[in-house]
């Protein structure tokens, strides 16, 4: 069975918009676990525009499933992860000013760097994952770094799904085959949604974990809207 790790970045975005503590990130994460999710993912960015470094420390104390911290392994991020010791760290090569993650690692070009960072995390007992495009060469490069898993960057699948889902999934099937051959665990994420997740999971049978945030939070707002509007109307009767 594939585990669902809910990315709570967007909860922190909403909280930060008013400067207070509503919604309460820790409460939301705990409730997401109560509702059955098997993990919590966060992606602290250097400007702390959503998840703050302190959130990572606080979440570590209350998450009872699996905490996955994603990010670009700059020195500050590496120190944070080694201090917090999440269950899993996912290395993502995003630029400081990136709106969101927009590419996987070139695991061949950055092999030496990745190998060093992966070794540090594994020595600390943290499971490692490397964010890669659906390209068997990049998967093979990831294996050389010593990582436990890869996370397939699913933006191209999500975009292609509505046009031609059979075509959109093909590179992911190939990349997953390569990962299986090399005994690498497979995670996936980015722009997965209620529309496209089932077909993805059906076609990538060894999928260990998906991390989903943006669509899941948007869907939650929309699916809850009618209920909440009616609750307000009842209060105003
Ligand atoms: C690695 C990945 O695809 C996600 O972590 C995604 O980048 C979410 O980050 P934002 O919420 O900052 O867009
Ligand atoms: N690793 C992907 C992730 O955590 C969530 O990405 P998205 O669903 O917010 O696009």
As laid out across the biggest beta sheet, the strand order is 1-2-3-4-5-6-7-8
Number of strands: 8
- Measured by DSSP, the beta-strand proportion falls in 15-25%
Bound molecules: 1-deoxy-D-xylulose-5-phosphate, the ligand NCC(=O)COP(=O)(O)O
Share of helix, binned: 40-55%
CATH topology: TIM Barrel
Number of domain modules: 1
Please tell me about this protein's structure.
This protein has helices at 9-18, 25-34, 53-62, 75-84, 111-123, 136-145, 155-181, 197-203, 214-235, and strands spanning 3-7, 39-42, 67-71, 88-91, 127-132, 149-153, 185-189, 207-212. It is globular and about 65 Å long. It has nine helices and eight strands. 50% of the residues lie in helices and 17% in strands. The N and C termini lie far apart (47 Å). The longest helix is centred in the C-terminal third of the chain and has 27 residues, at 155-181. By secondary structure, it is α/β, with parallel strands linked by helices. It has one domain: Aldolase class I (TIM Barrel), CATH 3.20.20. It binds 1-deoxy-D-xylulose-5-phosphate and ligand LD2JLWAY.
Task: Explain the layout of strands and helices.
Blueprint: E1 3-7, H1 9-18, H2 25-34, E2 39-42, H3 53-62, E3 67-71, H4 75-84, E4 88-91, H5 111-123, E5 127-132, H6 136-145, E6 149-153, H7 155-181, E7 185-189, H8 197-203, E8 207-212, H9 214-235
Helix pairs in contact: 2-3, 5-6, 6-7
The chain binds 1-deoxy-D-xylulose-5-phosphate and the ligand NCC(=O)COP(=O)(O)O.
In short:
With 237 residues, this protein is of the alpha/beta class. The protein has helices spanning 9-18, 25-34, 53-62, 75-84, 111-123, 136-145, 155-181, 197-203, 214-235; strands at 3-7, 39-42, 67-71, 88-91, 127-132, 149-153, 185-189, 207-212. It has a single domain (3-235), classed as Aldolase class I (TIM Barrel, Alpha-Beta Barrel), CATH 3.20.20.
